[in-house]
Known about the structure:
Largest sheet: 7 strands, antiparallel
Distance between the termini: 34 Å
Strand order of the largest sheet: 20-19-17-18-16-15-21
Mean pLDDT: 88
Shape: elongated
Radius of gyration: 35 Å
Amino acid sequence: MAFDGITVSALTKELNDKLLQGRISKISQPEKNEILLLIKNEGENYRLFISASASLPVMYLTEENKPSPMTAPPFCMLLRKYLQGARITEISQPGLERVIRIKCEHLNEMGDVCFHVLTVELMGKHSNIILTDDKGIVTDSIKRVSALMSSVREVLPGKEYFIPFTDDRADALNTGDEKFKEIVSASNESIDKAIYKSFTGISPFIAGDMCLRAGVDPRKTPKDIDESEIKQIRMSFCETVDEINRKSFTPCILKENGRMKDYCVTGVKSYNEDDKVRFESVSEMLYCFYSTKNKSENMKQKGTDLKKKIATILERDIKKRDLQAKQLEDSNKRDKYRIYGELINTYGYGLTGDETVLMAVDYMTGEEVKIPLEKGKTAGENAKKYFDKYSKLRRTAEAVAIQLEETDREIAYLENISTFLAMAETEGEISQIKEELSANGFIRRSKDKVKREKAKPLHYTTPDGYDIYVGKNNVQNDELTFKFASGNDWWFHAKGVPGSHVVVRCSFANQAEEWDMPDEVFEAAGALAVKYSKNSALEKAEVDYLRRKNVKKPAGAQPGFVVYYTNYSLVASSDTERFALTMVKS
Length: 586
C-alpha cells in the first residue's frame, strides 16, 4: 500500500504526542538514504527512523537500533552540526501532502537562537530528506536534485525550498458537496480512480473502500451511477475526512489468507474483523508492516550491486579466456616452423640467397612442402629465423597455458561466489562475501566499516538427534570444515558444482565404523548439499560424501577450495521437508 496522506496525518499526530519539545540527542545514517534520530522527551528515549528509499519510503518510531558506518556520511555530519541537541518545537503536515516538517530550535556559534526545519518527503521515487533554514533556503538534502534531474524543482544548497503541489488535485479536507460532485462527475475513469486522482492524500485502496462502503462498485464510471449513489460515496468520503479532522485513527494491518496484504489508519469496511490486526500506535503498525521489507530491500540492493560487479568481472574474464584460448591455438602451429628450420638446414646447402622458396620433402609425412625464404639471406639465416619463431611461440604457449589455467580458476571461483550470493539471506552473509572479494582483490575494500553481527553456518537437527551444519559462503565453509568439524564427522558436497560444505557431527569422535548413522541422516545431509548448491533447481543431483579427515586444502588455495581422492556418492533431491529437520537459531 502507498504511504498516503492519511497515514502521514496519523503519524504526524503520534509524533506530536511523543516528540514535541523533545531534544535530538543522537543522529546516525545507517544506510545511504536512511536517517535515525534518538530523541529524549520527558524522561523517555524515542528512535525516529526515516527512509527516503525510492522503492520503500517510510517513517516511524522504533525501538530497534541499526549499526552505522564508522565514518559518518556528509549529510549526517551536517545534521549533527545543526540539529544535535536541538529542541523540536513543531511537527506539521501541509494539507494532506505526504510531507512531515520537523521544526527545531538550536543555538548557533554565537549562542543566538536559530531554527532549522527537517522536511521529510514520502513521495515514492521522489522521496527526500531536506534540511532548510528558518527562511526556507535549502541547507542540504540526502538526495541532491539538479535541473538536469528534474524540470519541476531543484533541491540544492542555497535554493529556495517549496513543495511541488499538484494543482490539478483538490484538498480533500476542504471540499464541499457540490465541488465533490462536480469533480467526480467530470471524470471519464472509474469512480475509485476519479477519487484518488482528484484529491490529495487519498490512496487507491482508500478510494476503493469508500465506494464499497457506499454500496457502489468502484469499477463503475460516473456515467453509470445516479445522483443518489454519488451522495452515498460523498457520505463515505466525509466519514473518512471526519476521522482525519478528529484525529481519530485506528491503525491496523489487513490480512489475506493469513498474510499481510495492506494497512490502514481509518475505518475500513472491505475487510472482515478477523482479517484485521489492530495496533496501539501507527508506528507499531508501520514497523510490523515495513521493517522486514526494509531489511529485505536493503539486502537486495546490496546483493544486486555485488552481483553486477561480479558479472562485470566474469564477463571480462570470459573474454580474456577466449583471447588466451585463441592465442594458445595459434601457438600450437609452432612445430611447423621448427620443421621448416630443420628442412632448410638439411636441404638448403645449395641456396645462393636469391631464392624466395625452397621445395623439400617433410621427413615426418613424406610430403613435399613449400618453405618461404627471405631473399638476400643465407640458408643458415633463414633457418635461424624459423627456429627463433618456434622458440617464441613455445615460450608464448607455456606462458598462455599458465594464464589460461589461472583465468579458468578465477572464473570458477567467481561462479562459486555467485552461487553463494544467490543463497545469501542476511546482510551478514553478504558482508562476508564482500570481505572475501576485497581480501582477494576483486573489489575495493570499503572505508566505511559497519559493525555487523557475524553470520554463522546454518544448524539443523534431525528427529533422532544428529546435528547438521551448512556453510553459506566460502568463509563459513573453511571455518566449518577445518576449524569446527572433527576428523570422524561426515562431510558432504554437491558433485562438481559450487555449493555449501555440509557437516554431520558424529555422536562419538572415536567412532571407527564407516556406517555409523541411519540412512535417513545421510539422505538428509545429501539433500541439504543439493539445496545449497548450484544444482538446487534440479530434481535430483549427485553428492560426494566422506569422513572430514580425508578432506584436504591445498597450500595457497582460495577460500572454500578443497580436494579429496576417496569418497562415496549418493543421489539426493533438494527437497528437505520430508526429513522433518529443525533449524536451530544461534
